[in-house]
Design goal:
With about 500 residues, the protein is of the alpha/beta class. The chain has 2 domains: about 270 residues, Aldehyde Dehydrogenase, Chain A, domain 1 (3-Layer(aba) Sandwich); about 180 residues, Aldehyde Dehydrogenase, Chain A, domain 2 (3-Layer(aba) Sandwich). Helix content is about 35%, strand content about 25%. The strands form 6 sheets. A 7-stranded mixed beta sheet has the order 15-16-17-14-13-19-20, with helices on both faces. Strand 2 and strand 3 form a beta hairpin. The longest helix is centred in the first third of the chain and has 20 residues. It starts with 8 loop residues before the first strand and ends in a 9-residue tail after the last strand. Bound molecules: nicotinamide-adenine-dinucleotide. The site of nicotinamide-adenine-dinucleotide (NAD) has 28 residues, from helix 9 and helix 10.
Amino acid sequence: MTVATPAATKLTNYINGQWAESRAADWQDVVNPATGEVLARVPLADGAEVGRAIEAAAAAYPDWRRTPPEDRIQPLFKLKQLLEEHVDELGRIITQENGKTFVEGKAELRRAIENVEVACGMPMMMQGYNLEDVARGIDETMIRQPLGVVAAITPFNFPGMIPFWFLPYAIACGNTFILKPSERVPLTMRRAFELLEQCGLPKGVVNLVNGGKAAVDALLDHPKVRAISFVGSTPVAKYVYARAGANGKRAQCQGGAKNHVIILPDADMQMATQIISDSAFGCAGQRCLAVSVAVTVGAAQKTFRDSITDAAAKLPVGNGLDEGVQMGPVITPQSKSRIESLIGVGEKQGAKVLLDGRGARISRHEAGNFVKPTVLDGVSAASELADTEIFGPVLSLVHASDMDEAMAFLERSAYGNQASLFTSSGSAARRFRYEAPAGNIGINIGVAAPMAYFPFSGWKDSFFGIMHGQGRDAVEFYTEKKVVIERWAKEHSRKF
Ligand code: NAD
């Protein structure tokens, strides 16, 4: 199976309802991480090009804002139908540009579709509230109104899902929208926008601009952009949050992660092994909710160490489009060498490499960026590895004598995207839910990804902002509250 795009196809932007050739001076190859094949060339838009998209979105806003919410959601029903019909096609594109397996690509699209479905409830979700007689004869009402032009900047690891954490809610609330997807994986959204084009949205309501830092800066600095949604690494999230704030924009910025799981001796070890293996090595460990550190407590140490190493060693690694493959490559050769050198750092700082995924060679895919599942034992709290986001298929094992000691590992992490516990004890689960310092909590769950009607709730250095993506938070983020206080003369029976 090959992607429909012939090699070196020059990608275009979608501005004001039209595919527009880019005048960018800088271009970048889009490369299949499993094969090294160049799939396309992506433009890195400059400020002027981004400015055209912003002006198109600004021009579309007054009429879109006046379009009744009931009418605004009709294109989203169409979009849901088209996404359902094209799941296989989009799933293949995700695998080809990102490297995850076809099954994983289709799974992320399900999450995308769920967000479209939830946003279809906007006529209910966007309602305000009111109270009569706040004083005699005076009524007070809270109305939600859209902001105007809003933009989202998204990462490489979920090319099909993450843009849909934002787009459906933004436009259903009455905003007009600009997406700047990751320049490493622009093909999925190119196809998704071809589908959006068939949904009957007025021109300028959704726009797609390809680019990198210059495009992001242009969105952050333009006075007509009212809100920024960002997902990516923590240093860039902090930068985007600060610059958006300095320019008076609201921002929600999701950053990196270092997720811990605690395994108590009373856990169902077979279930824990299977679920944690999927969390640590699924999507080649390039999930912001991937378990990265497993803290075993007491007698769980030996059983889990042996079973997870065994499970990891058996994972079939290869091209995600090949039957039976359960783990694909990492995104770039640079990523592969960064991950391999971090494994070396862990080893030098005292960890024992129980399973070594460095130097992986996959036959017929010699140009692919493969790192096989890796398990490190005895990573000390002082090791650089304990704090660094690896973003690859590497699981560090840490041992604690009791739950207090295990919780201390979580407390000291700079990140707070997800924390999980495996146990059969209700009281341990309650304590964990109550005390764990992370926004997404899993109890016997390996990837605690909130459904579309709950906020994707990172904490600490994993999130900068107040309102998260998805669900009710998305409505709060994409609307401004207006409060109206009214008094009318008492002329009930006036004749006109
Ligand atoms: P990244 O930070 O390199 O890039 C994210 C986006 O920012 C891209 O669109 C990119 O073009 C842009 N960008 C990159 N450098 C920039 C700069 N200097 N100035 C302005 N814009 C810049 O992230 P990535 O490598 O694409 O994605 C992986 C990271 O995203 C990981 O750290 C992962 O944990 C994180 N992530 C977090 C979540 C979450 O929900 N918290 C979800 C997915 C991914």
